[in-house]
Design brief:
12 helices; alpha/beta; Rossmann fold; six-stranded mixed β-sheet; about 325 residues; four-stranded parallel β-sheet; about 45% helix; binds pyridoxal-5'-phosphate; about 15% strand; pyridoxal phosphate
Length: about 325
């Protein structure tokens, strides 16, 4: 456990997120043991995985003496909402550069961005690279206003951001020791820009007692592109930390649950939302965590998991439930 805080951290979490069993869902799915790591409860702006990245990204921004945080995504981006919340907690301004030329419904994440007083802009462009250019242009504008901007790329998947999930692995392993839990057979987690999975994979190098395998469920890219992206991120992170590179065979990603595309709810994702809500009183969202849970359910139904011990790593996204209210009630 000697690896703690390799980079400066701006603390945003209130201690550890809970690690607890899901006995009723496990019984329903005939899984030997099922647990959840509650990164939907990360303590700022309704929580989610990005807060763990933001602790280290804001550590970097503070170190550089910045006073405005600029990031981007879709107008319903969880990452943008959590960046705005984290910036506010750090006493900084938040500028959000959105893809496309329409805000859409003033609901869910966008509503929360507005309530936090984030400055919102429509870039007219799509895609992570084009958005990064648009954010850099905004950073120049901020400089002409005499501000000191800090740009965070879409998803916050930089070395420092992804390091947040190495840190999270350590936390989870510590909780497993306290609860006398032996290693899981599988951890299941949603994959968007890939940094969360990359951080967990590098964390598992350091703490192999976490799990035998980690399954990433892509909500966006196909398997090949998602795997390439996660490999690129694990390579950068391992190199920065002077660890051995992750063998490509360790990166296991399924894109079988993307459905009609990013942000489009699927029937199995909606079923997963209801199943978790009905059995455990917990919520996943239609864009990320509902699809990841659908991936877990599909494995449990296809394979015999009656002897398996599985951890669902909940990454948040709760405001998405409200943006998709109409389809969820279908
Ligand atoms: C709720 C939720 N889960 C999972 C992810 C995916 O995380 P990553 O981009 O690190 O793969 C995101 C990213 O925005 C998210 O908002």
């Amino acid at each position: 456990m000697e690896n703690r805080e390799r980079y400066p951290r701006f603390p945003l979490l209130w201690g550890e997120t809970p690690l607890h069993p899901l006995p009723r869902l496990a019984q329903r799915l005939r899984i030997g043991g099922l647990w959840v790591k509650r990164d939907d409860l990360t303590g700022v702006a309704l929580g989610g995985n990005k807060v763990r990245k933001l602790e280290f990204l804001l550590g970097e921004a503070k170190e550089a003496g910045c006073d405005v945080v600029i990031t981007g995504g879709s107008p319903q981006s969880n990452h943008a909402r959590l960046t705005a919340g984290a910036a506010r907690r750090a006493g900084m301004e938040a500028w959000l550069v959105f893809a496309g030329s329409r805000y859409g419904k003033e609901q869910g994440n966008l509503l929360l961005d507005r309530l936090m007083g984030a400055r919102c802009f429509l870039s007219g462009v799509y895609g992570s690279e084009a958005l990064l250019e648009a954010m850099k242009a905004k950073a120049q504008e901020a400089e002409t206003e005499g501000k000191r901007p800090f740009v965070i790329p879409v998803g916050g998947s930089t070395v420092r951001g992804d390091y947040g999930y190495v840190h999270a692995t350590e936390e989870c392993v510590r909780q497993m020791e306290e609860q006398n839990l032996s290693p899981f057979n599988r951890v299941v987690v949603a994959v968007g820009s890939g940094g969360t999975l990359a951080g967990l994979l590098v964390g598992k190098q350091l703490y192999p007692q976490l799990t035998e395998q980690i399954l990433g469920v892509s909500v966006w890219l196909d398997e090949e592109r998602a795997t390439m992206e996660v490999a690129r991120l694990t390579d950068s992170l391992s190199q920065a930390l002077a660890f051995e590179p992750i063998p490509p065979s360790e990166i296991e990603i399924t894109a079988a649950h993307v459905g009609g595309g990013y942000g489009r709810p699927t029937a199995e994702g909606k079923r997963a939302i209801r199943l978790l809500a009905e059995t455990e009183g917990l919520f996943v969202d239609p864009v990320y965590t509902g699809k990841a849970l659908a991936g877990l359910i599909a494995c449990a139904e296809r394979e015999d998991w009656s002897q398996q011990r599985v951890l669902f790593w909940h990454t948040g996204g709760t405001p998405g439930i409200f943006t998709h209210a109409a389809t969820l009630l279908e």
